[in-house]
Design goal:
alpha/beta, 18% strand, 41% helix
Amino acid sequence: MAKRAHVMVVTPHPDDAEFGVAGTVAVWASEGKDVIYVVCTNGDKGTSDPNMKPDELVRIREQEQIAAANTLGVSEVIFLRHPDQGLEDTPEFRKEIVRLIRMYRPETVVTADLGRRRIWHRDHRITSQVTLDAIFPYARDFLSYPDLMEEGLQPHKVKEVLLWGAEEPNHRTDITRTFDTKIAALLCHRSQISSIPQTGWEQRLKERHRMLAEGEEYELAEAFFRVEILW
């Protein structure tokens, strides 16, 4: 049965969405929009602690992600639980995303950018490519995955895509009033934040978002490459 969400955020790992789009998510939630998270990997490689067990890390990171989502006002978090560093561009993974797009029918989908010119986490590239392919043409075309039609999941046309981490963004959102909420959400990811030098990281992040707002009338921004889907 189809549900409904205004925005779907497809994130490679727990914590990526908080770095990339949390300020904007908090704005959307404050406006009454339903935002859902789809977390593609379980994050079981994301530690510098040699004594940490992968299963325990998965448990910790899911709890952290839920806490961060609650801080931002996210309506629901869906964990796909693929292995960290193990994403592949497969029909099965694409179908998972298509199923969720048809189920929740978002107007906007947000995910990581396809990739920087040099170094970019492979899970980010794969997540972006699979999500973009799922949006167009697979979620749109009724003859794609006909078994989903049999389940009652009708085709759906996403209206816009926002890609965080883009080197040449063309769209900005004002996060001046939600920056502190973004920080609070990031602080929920203790297993990840603990590896960042603690002195001044919040101020450095604020300066980055101030630079992204350069030329705008507001102080702080998150930046994306935005694609409006007209077909």
